[in-house]
Write a structure and sequence with these properties.
Helices cover 52% and strands 12% of the residues. It has four domains: 3-160, 2-Layer Sandwich (Beta Polymerase, domain 2), CATH 3.30.460; 183-279 and 291-297, Nucleotidyltransferases  domain 2 (Four Helix Bundle (Hemerythrin (Met), subunit A)); 312-319 and 332-498 and 524-534; 578-783, no CATH class. Helix 10 runs parallel beside helix 13 (262-291), helix 11 packs across helix 12 and helix 11 packs across helix 13 (262-291). The strands form three sheets. It has an eight-stranded antiparallel sheet, sandwiched between helices. Strands 3-2-1-4 form a four-stranded mixed sheet, with helices on both faces. The chain has a three-stranded antiparallel sheet with strand order 5-6-7. The chain is of the alpha+beta class. The longest helix is centred in the middle third of the chain and has 30 residues, at 262-291.
Amino acid sequence: MPSEALSSRRITQVLHEGFADAAAGPSRRLAQSDLVDDWLRGLWERAGAPASEGSGAALAAIGSLGRRSLGPGSDLDLVLLLDPVRVSAEESARLASALWYPIWDSGTSLDHAVRSPEECESVAAADLRAAISLLDLRVVAGDAQLVADTSARVRAQWRREARRRVGELVDLATDRGRHHGSLAHSTEPNLKSDRGGLRDITVIRALAESWLADHDHAVVDDASRVLRDARDALQAVTGSSGTRLGRADQDAVAALTGHATADDHHAVLAEAARAVTWELHRAVRAAEAAIAPGGAGTRGLGTDRRPALTRVGHGVLVQSGEVSVDPAGRDLLRDVAAVRHAATSGLPLADATLERLARAPVGPFLPAQRDVLVDALAGEHLADTYEALDVKGIFARWVPGWAEIRNRPQRSAVHRFTVDRHQVETVIEAQRFLPRVGRPDLLLVTALLHDIGKRPDARDHAIEGAPLAEAAARHLGFDQADVRTIGILVREHLTLVSLATGRDLADPATLRELLTAVDEDPETLELLRALTEADAVAAGPAAWSTWRADLVDHLTDLARDALSGTVSAPRTLLTPQRSVQDAVLAAVRRSGSAQVLYPAHLDAEPISQICVGAPDGDGVFAAMARVLVRLRLDVHSAVVVTMEGIAVNTWWVAGAPSDLPHPSVLRSALDRELAHRDRPDARVLELPPAPPPRTTEDTPVVTLLPGASREATVVQVNARNRPSLLADVAEVITVHRLQVRSAHVMTLGRRAVDVLYLTDQHGRALDPPTVGRIVAALMDAAAT
């Protein structure tokens, strides 16, 4: 496109068009940068600026244009470089106006500066970010030698000051990582600012320019291409300069970058981000070693640079603060022992050792190798060691089935890591339970394998993952009895929390299902309890809380008692604070009206408990749910029961007690609601309708749970959460004149999972026609 055409059009518009027209990847970015260079040279000529060498005036680029990697939404970062000896102040001002105003008039975003070579050097010395950006200084028009000389001065100063500035540079990258998180594990990654993103690549290359550390150029260049392609596709799709890859744009961006699904694209992005993170870690480590006493940065100071060497057994060596192996060693435990030492000591594995492990043949583990690997899984520094092994593909070679889950995203708001890293985090959380279980080795390995069935086409990752985990456990050296236990734990790793939070713990069928799941084995029960908490905590804060732990512990206690013969399948009632329920029950008996009590707030989470009681009858459950909606209380969980003809319902709502309305306000509202519960017009909630489902994940699912109870029909409603969902579900039950024997409500991220124990007016389980009607009605209510 002629440069004249650009002068009347927004440059970003042309860049967006060029994304579709030009070849993909680096060649397109080069072509786009050349296009903008041509336009800027035209502006330079029309401004009457000198074009000859030695004129003392030049237009230079930094940032993405300086690197010749423009994206559709990139700003123009320009420096008007002037030698004050050869160019007057008046001429400087004239040139700046002649250049900047046409760019502004075109609507293009511009970051500009007018500086002399000395000012560039001074700014670079004072401002770390400016110094890094000036490393990309590139001539666009004018005196090329002036730009080359300025670039050389900035780079020479960068290298002179590198030893002093390494710490500042590391702090800059670390602070950004704390604020933005990890690109590899984010469900909506920021391609520029997240850990492992484009800004980290800039830091890696800045460290290389200091001559204190280098990096694997092929790895970083490949990762840069992947991330920049994603950025360009995102900006082309959105028409903006943003770098946050939101869910709504992921399918389109995946298609534009040549991937079949958003998950496939996310796996490629995670691979690139983890490679960048690893190369940054290596570069920082090398730079810090170089400036340490005795390092490469202190040569000529008279220090003894011969690194001490320590042998730690099985052919493992520690030298220069790194773990390596004796290449001539023949110990069968050498490689896995090196990994164990890194995981327990926190020292990094040497690059040469990682390369050796990546090439070494892999066969089934011997029992002794298995035991050393288990020791490594118990290491305090397992996460860092895993990332080093993973980036070289070593872990996938050691654990069958690992490659299929590596870098796979989790499409759940609860999870904060990719599938593979979540399993490693679960191992780390499981370390707390090692003194409490009889087989800590099985706990660690099961934690490592529990989600190995989370593959793209998996329908039930727990059931499908069990045989995969068994195969992996056999490869890792476990005998058949242990393999069977690992398979049971993987298959049932969601069972305990599902039963505890979603089923009636007063129903014997709930306990029987748990006992069957653990094969009526006390040791398996204890392992499952530990795995349940480790898995939930590793997922993220939304998956575990004190009240959820109380439910799990109560059901586990029931199972322990049943297995020890202390009691037979008891019909005890689970409540977080039974004394509170008793107090509400007594108050309702005395008054004959609704009562509300706020128990003492003991949880660390910002979740409060409300206990509400009222004489039971048609519509009471729905009335309570409507009151909570009207008062804008966000329900996280609930246990609904009837005690001696009185509905005593416990609700957990978001917020501290000080944020809640006074109990008298809630009681008055409930009295009014109960008084008008027979009037359909009074039951209407004035709330905006729920948005239509955007994905299949938003579609409600209503499931009948046969066998969950002998005394009631159990139905589970799994739907996208909204303020009125529970009230709408309760209203359906009222309209169909059914009774709620108990209900268990739970919120997981954007989803609400409500398990309802329903009976007819005579307290009996529902007949098949009624089941069909209520399931259809609940589907409609959940989708409304």
